[in-house]
Design a protein that fits this description.
- The structure is a single chain.
- The protein is mostly helical.
- It has nine helices and no strands.
């Protein structure tokens, strides 16, 4: 990441978020145009989203870190992996990219550039689902970076593919994506009035994951000493 200046990193974040949202929204539109079966439509939406995450993180990760998610950028800033001075502009790039992704999806399917969603996604179960979804996403990223960094694109793609199906909210797990999805009245939409509840629980889940995983990944001092002694023997 240090090899690329801020402007290139911001373009990578905006581009990645745009392509992610275009995939989420576009595959949802395509799925519902091909089938009336909601389960089958969700499966198509899921596979496309998981696949694009693997691609985007692999090709843009070396440039910007491939956050594409304000909650992830916040966690990296809190942990020191992202300079705090860059956090605000990272988030701005992600939100702008997300809106651009919705516009691109609509243009591809001959829809109005932006439409406020009428899809209701609110209530305790939805909010708890978003907290769990974002907690899991951040946990996978932090542990993946620690133990198997090259596998992170696959770990994230597979996690989101699974989380689409085990969470009641279908795992937005991303404040920028949630906002972008409020601007499409299609399969993947969410009412604008429901977005703040998602934001709050997404950030809460991300911070909780940072606290727990940071603790979990720190071996006890006594264990480290024992291992060092055994190595000398």
């Amino acid at each position: 990441m240090a090899s690329y200046d801020l402007s290139r990193r911001l373009v990578a974040e905006a581009l990645g978020t745009a392509m992610l949202v275009a995939t989420v929204v576009g595959s949802g539109i395509m799925a519902t145009s091909l089938t009336a079966d909601v389960g089958l439509a969700l499966l198509g939406n899921t596979l496309a989203t998981g696949a694009i995450l693997v691609v985007l993180i692999t090709v843009l990760g070396p440039i910007s870190g491939a956050h594409f998610n304000p909650a992830v950028s916040l966690i990296f800033a809190m942990s020191g992996s992202l300079p705090k001075r860059d956090l605000g502009v990272y988030m701005l790039a992600q939100f702008a990219g997300g809106v651009a992704g919705t516009v691109c999806a609509h243009l591809m399917f001959n829809l109005p550039l932006l439409e406020l969603s009428s899809t209701v996604r609110t209530g305790g179960a939805q909010w708890f689902s978003e907290a769990i979804a974002t907690f899991g996403l951040v946990a996978v990223i932090l542990a993946g970076i620690r133990f198997e960094q090259k596998a992170v694109p696959w770990l994230v793609g597979l996690y989101i593919t699974a989380a689409y199906w085990f969470t009641a909210s279908t795992s937005f797990a991303n404040p920028a994506v949630a906002f972008a999805r409020s601007l499409t009245d299609t399969f993947s939409g969410i009412r604008p009035i429901d977005v703040p509840g998602f934001w709050l629980t997404e950030i809460s889940g991300a911070v909780a994951a940072l606290v727990l995983i940071t603790w979990l990944l720190q071996p006890a001092a006594s264990s480290s000493s024992t291992l060092s002694s055994e190595a000398k023997l």
